[in-house]
Amino acid sequence: MVAIAQAEAGGFQLKELSADSLATSLAGQSAKASDASTVFSNPAGMTRLQGHHLSATTSGVMPYASFSGGATRNGAPIAGSIGGDAIGDGLVGGGYGVYSFSNDLKFGVAVVSPFGLRSKYASDFVGRYQALDSSLMNFQVQPTIAYRINSALSVGLGIDISYTTAKLGTAIDLPALTGGLIRSDAYGQLSGDSTNVGFNVGVLYEFSPTTRIGLDYRSRISTNLKGDANFVSPVPLAALPAALRAALTNTSGSAKLTLPDVASLGFYHEVTPDFALMAEVQWTNWSLFKELRIKYGDGRPDSVTAENWRDGWFFSVGGNYKFTQQFAGQLGIGYEIAPVTDTVRTARIPDADRLWTSAGISYEFTPNSKINLSYAHLFGVGSNNISHVTPATPSLPITYRTTGSYNADADIISLGYSVKF
């Protein structure tokens, strides 16, 4: 499973984890509890599922992101390209299961990838001294229980066992650092991983058999990505000055990263037996992301990128209409307020606000099996400018600035299958 984020989710959060939810732009996913994916979207919803359930979703993500602009080194233009399409196609998805001990007590498991990013610019990208390639993948296994307290109120609680792996690569400006004696860049990459634990809790309140609201909270997860800082030089290290030899010597490295807590509120109402309306609001605590700091095991100065993100918000509405007992269609629209603004946008994560539009169909082969096919298009909207400065430091006395704008959108096709027994 390959995780891609910049073109289709706020920050590096992945949302397209259920074909059923994608069809309505996630509207109502915290409240409708229509299949086993509720284990992740709101575990309390498991009490609405009778019997045992399995669900799986695979989403093909086809993003596009391009940069236009330039970069400078101490005010002088840097030669190079605009980097091409920085984000490739990929797959995301999830698997879910629910076991019923009774009508009121349920156990569920979700296997998902709720955070991820991947970007890779051409090697001669003008902003290569600030970012060249990035990848982060987060996988979570979530064992969960749910209990119906009374006819209206259900609660759910789960543990999130999280594994995160990341790689961050940057070109190193040997032409400037050697006064032009060496004409090719070096390359540095930090790679590391971390295993951690969080929790989630959900509440579902049913006003009637046709109207309900759901509230879900997922805790932040603090990671400490530990691994290696590796460097590739175009010339033997022995040919470099002592200071550069030390800077390009492989060592251990680490970076602390907090995966943010997320709170979601969903609404579901059946207007008629065939027509339902849904809504969703989601808050993501991205303001935790103040900086990206890489520490090196040999004591050299930290590499620090200021981030200073704000909280992210997502709003959506959608509907479901049953044409027949077996066949239904869905529509949705959503708006995402990104955690990144023009003042803090970087080439590594060039995020922006997005308008979501989506549609889907579902078909029940039998009363116990259903397939969902969904499509969403995400439009990048609003300002998407960048003016990212890496200030000079004693160890790197060069100021880099990347200035320009990004254009990004994405198409997502999602296929899901659910069965109960």
UniProtKB/TrEMBL annotation:
Gene3D superfamilies: Outer membrane protein transport protein (OMPP1/FadL/TodX)
Tagged with keyword Cytoplasm: no
Protein name, UniProt field: Outer membrane protein transport protein
Organism of this sequence: Methyloraptor flagellatus
A GO cellular component entry from the record: cell outer membrane
Compartment annotation: Cell outer membrane
Domain of life: Bacteria
GO molecular function: long-chain fatty acid transporting porin activity
Topology class, membrane: Multi-pass membrane protein
Similarity comment text for this entry: Belongs to the OmpP1/FadL family.
Keywords: Cell outer membrane, Membrane, Signal, Transmembrane, Transmembrane beta strand
